[in-house]
Structure prediction request, 493 residues.
Amino acid sequence: MMTNLALLIDAADHVATAFEPLAAGVVLDLKAGAQSYRVTLREPIPSGHKFAVTDIADGTEVRKYGASIGRATRLIDAGAHVHLHNLESLRGRGDLS
Amino acid sequence: MNTSILGYPRADGSFGIRNHVAVIAAMDNVNPVVRRICDSVKGTVPICVAYGRGQFGADLAQHDRVLLGYATHPNVAAALIVGLEPVTAGRLAAAVEAAGRPVRVLDVQSMGGTVQAVAQGVRDAAALVIESSEIVRAPMPLSELVVGVECGASDATSGLTANSTTGMVADWIVNAGGVVVLSETDEIVGAETSLAARARTPEVARQLLSAVARLEALSDFQGLQLWPLGEDNIAGGLTTVEEKSLGAVRKGGTTTLQEVIGYGEKPTQKGLVFMDAPAPGVENIAALAAGGAHLILFNTGVGNPIGHPLSPTIKVTGNPKTAQDFSDNIDVDVSGILTSGQSLEQASEQLRDAMLKVACGRMTASEVLGDTEISISRIELGFVRHMREQAPELQA
Prediction:
């Protein structure tokens, strides 16, 4: 069990951040405040990238640092990579205006 | 720890932490003349610009404001202004003189071409360097120190390591009576609420939120997504502007937001100040320095080498790979936060010590290697008119 390879910043967060390249199948115990998760990675996570610590429904505002970092554009399963393919910004969207 | 610093006293009572003679191109077509003058005269720093011709209105005013800020920068003992024609160069030189700073001026047309202009420029610059060399360092109150904070080539480590470390140093500077200038409006989008909640007055909060609202109005005006993420940010794991901002804003620390100022403007308050300026590194440090920042704490995740020619720029990283692979360009390595259990307190003491040494004369990697550059932001004049007509309440 590895606990120092990734960080859950805030108890309210949906995502944790990897600080080493992590392989699919790795099991991580993550804890922030009173909140804890055991997550099995569904795919490789590059260093610095995010993965879901819980299932995130399509359209959910995704939290990191305890705050919204955008919206899920599809269902994201716990342990999945979270990046441009399934998370979009809600701010400064002049492209949608 | 020794917390006293030594600076170069200026006639107006301020202090610099460097004693440069700045040779400033008023417009882009004399950049080669400026470079040749500086190649020939030790102790000079070239300030070369893009544009300066074909600029109008608020766009030109911003260009002029930045160059006046450089000519009267506390780290500048004297300035030589170089222009193509006498009117523009003379106008800038007159403003420098009115500010009580030593200045000389020449223009290439009056000199009869670049060869004569370089020859005269070398004489003028040499005289200014010799005069300035008499100024010696004297005790400088910490409360005189103005520090800009910036991050570039950010990644997922930036917010948690270097920016958090810088935030603690920022709080220390503010508590010592100095000024910290946080900036990068596109990197507070999504994190502005918490910053506005720390504003000294409701009016300061309104100004901060207006700066963000203007940027989102610009995104609408252009029909383009606000997108301050570079390919290196994305490869480093950052996905959205909100995520980048929540990490970036940490470098401003936790103190009261005293004031919001415009691009390249000088703070009028002590403490934490926000400057409304774009995030890209070279543009942003150009603005911070124009506002009188003595030095800049510049955090990098993936690795960004650039510094400002007048404001020593301390490169800080918390990314262990960058600390190792990009070490020629890193001044302070706080990657121990991730690799060896270094606390944020220890990291901030390390950064504070390095900052005070640089203030006293220790040179930074970008100063020694010459990785210094400026780029003055341009203003989209059509948007200025759009805002005046459509949202006058949001104007700065």
